[in-house]
Amino acid sequence: MYRFAIYGKGGIGKSTAASALSCAFADMGYRVMQIGCDPKADSTLYLHHGEKITSILDVLREKRDKAELKDLITIGYHDIICGECGGPTPGLGCAGRGIGAAFEALEERSAFAILKPDIVIYDVLGDVVCGGFAMPIRQGYADQVYIVTSGENMAIYAAANIATAVENFKQRGYADIGGVILNRRNVPEEREKVETLCSDIHSRIAADLPRDNHIAEAEMQMRPVMEMFPACDYAAKIRALASSMIKNGVDHV
């Protein structure tokens, strides 16, 4: 089982990249599970064609101990297993603790042993890398972390913070950085800025994703871009990234 955590600043396009990767891996014949670790619970939205699914935390609040594994997941496009951690009622709880509770619920129900995914993708908000948001790194859920960034200053700042957190936990035998995913915003000297980031954190640009209007067109139809526009440039770059992640994952093992 390959386990990847996709981190990045909020709004940087990591959920789009994570969902596109899930589609690419599924196209390659893998059984894929994607777990959204954002309180908004919208990581997998287009994998089930815009139909809002009940988050794991909401299910637990409603059914408590009676919640079964089938209540916590939804089967989406290309049989991708979708799960959304969700979050607490605004102002009444900690989102990080919510992620922890969701992960524990999946473990208690032997989710990975029963569902047997070949690939697990965690889509994690990277603005704050502590508490529950660090669980995929520190608890050994993920083997490798891929950081999504653009050349914008705040995105690079967040990426550097994520890399620092990964490095700290790596010393305990946890996940390491598989690479940086440049998701272009077409700012000046964008590639050069991200190359400097990679040099600073001793990593590499794993993919250079173009700013592609096909993504917005697909999302208007509530579909993943890999389904609607499989021949577009973005889709081709995602497929190449997926192949390299598998190879990198094999080498890592």
- Indicate the CATH architecture: 3-Layer(aba) Sandwich
Q: Determine and state the CATH class.
A: Alpha Beta
> Strand sequence of the main sheet, in spatial order?
3-4-2-5-1-6-7-8
**Low-confidence parts lasting 5 or more residues at pLDDT below 50?**
none
Largest sheet: 8 strands, mixed
Decide which structural class fits the backbone: alpha/beta
Specify the number of helices.
Answer: 11
Rg on CA atoms, Å: 17 Å
Encode the helix/strand succession as letters.
EHEHHEEHHEHEHEHEHHH
Q: Output the CATH topology.
A: Rossmann fold
How helix-rich are the residues, as a percent range? 40-55%
Tally of separate domains: 1
Q: How many angstroms does the end-to-end distance come to?
A: 10 Å
Query: Given the C-alpha coordinates, what overall shape results?
Result: globular
Protein architecture, described:
This protein has 253 residues and is an alpha/beta fold. The chain has one domain (2-252): Rossmann fold (3-Layer(aba) Sandwich). Helix content is 44%, strand content 18%. Strand 7 (176-183), helix 8 and strand 8 form a beta-alpha-beta unit. The chain is globular, with a radius of gyration of 17 Å. It starts with a strand and ends with a helix. The model has no long low-confidence stretch (mean pLDDT 93).
Q: Care to give the gist of this entry?
A:
The chain is α/β, with parallel strands linked by helices.
What's the layout of helices and strands?
Layout: E1 2-8, H1 14-27, E2 32-37, H2 56-63, H3 69-72, E3 74-75, E4 81-84, H4 95-108, H5 111-115, E5 119-125, H6 135-138, E6 144-149, H7 153-170, E7 176-183, H8 190-201, E8 205-209, H9 213-220, H10 225-228, H11 233-252
Parallel strand pairs: 1-5, 1-6, 2-4, 2-5, 6-7, 7-8
Antiparallel strand pairs: 3-4
Helix pairs in contact: 1-11, 7-8
